[in-house]
Design brief:
With 309 residues, this protein is of the alpha+beta class. The protein has helices at 13-37, 45-53, 70-78, 139-160, 169-178, 183-194, 242-250, 284-287, and strands spanning 2-4, 42-43, 65-69, 88-91, 104-108, 112-115, 121-123, 126-134, 204-206, 217-219, 227-231, 234-238, 268-272. Helices cover 32% and strands 18% of the residues. Strand 11 and strand 12 (234-238) form a beta hairpin. Helix 4 (139-160) packs across helix 5 and helix 4 packs antiparallel against helix 6 (183-194). It is globular.
């Protein structure tokens, strides 16, 4: 299935469902790998909400989000490509050739997805894999560490976003300041903040990369023991205290939003579920040029050695 427009795709029910089924295929393989390697993960955010409220995808949703305790996340990133199905590529902050994010994406190489970010972000259909990090022993400590993170994350975004800025002097100055540093240098600072508190020793944990900001941080026992939930005819692990977790994020989560709010939040410009993204014009991964403007040698699925801090 191919959908391509100059502006954001109007996601019909047919396109959304075809996209969801591709995501489901990726998720099944991710789950199998985590079981095989005894790695813990949880469904997060709207994916967890879909599991509880719909026993699958929220009908208008077009993504899957999972989170892993930091230790398990790092073990996942260290796995060799041979552990993955050949058509999957784990894009991480350490092997990204176009955009560094503070989390990873498990992509289907056989598909093409172009998102409206910067000058166009080219990849495959993907699920997001977030690290879950410690945030201290109180909500106050979680708020403080998130504020530190948000500043550096903003610099990372401003450094990499190539879209013209509106007539805003502060944002222009901020971008100029951010571009005094290489993206990987900023990312190292982001990662140091995210891992400042020990996951094991913290009473509060959270997903720094989540869209709900402070709401993403909550008592660790909300996550608890990974619990199987029905999802589109399969079963995946979610949080133990689903009601507490979803209430913290959404409030009255069982009530459907207004009809006009039932839409995807992703800005997808082009999607082809039958063609590999390596064939897409301008695909950075094919050129092998790194985010810092250097050609880097790397094997998909392997984390490259970090530069010294």
């Amino acid at each position: 299935m191919n959908a391509a427009f100059d502006e954001k795709i109007e996601m019909s029910d047919t396109i959304i469902r075809a996209h969801q089924l591709k995501l489901l295929d990726i998720m099944k393989l991710f789950h199998e790998l985590c079981v095989r390697h005894r790695l813990t993960y949880y469904l997060l955010g709207g994916t967890m909400l879909g599991a509880v409220r719909h026993q699958g995808f929220i009908p208008w949703d077009d993504d899957i989000d999972v989170g892993m305790p930091r230790g398990d996340y790092e073990k996942l990133l260290a796995l060799p490509q041979s552990e993955w199905a050949g058509h999957l590529h784990l894009k991480t902050p350490h092997n990204a050739t176009d955009l560094i994010l503070p989390y990873s994406k498990l992509m289907d190489r056989r598909t093409t997805l172009v998102e409206d970010y910067s000058d166009g972000l080219v990849g495959g259909v993907y699920i997001d894999v977030f690290p879950l990090d410690g945030a201290g022993n109180s909500m106050a400590s979680a708020r403080l560490i998130y504020r530190c993170y948000y500043w550096e994350r903003t610099l990372l975004h401003m450094n990499q976003n190539k879209k013209p800025l509106k007539d805003n002097l502060f944002r222009r100055l901020l971008r100029a300041y951010a571009r005094l540093y290489r993206p990987r240098s900023i990312y190292r600072r982001v990662e140091r903040i995210m891992t400042f508190h020990s996951y094991e020793k913290s009473r509060y944990i959270g997903n720094f990369g989540g869209v709900w900001k402070f709401k993403e941080f909550m008592p660790k026992d909300y996550f608890g023991e990974p619990t199987l939930y029905a999802f589109e005819g399969s079963k995946f692990w979610g949080v133990e205290k689903a009601d507490a977790y979803l209430t913290a994020l959404y409030g009255d989560y069982m009530t459907l939003p207004p009809v006009d709010a039932r839409q995807s939040h992703h800005n997808i410009k082009h999607m082809d579920l039958d063609s590999p993204y390596s064939d897409y014009p301008g695909c950075v991964e094919s050129a092998g040029k790194g985010v810092d403007g250097e050609h880097e040698r790397r094997s998909p699925g392997h984390a490259v050695k970090k530069e010294p801090a």
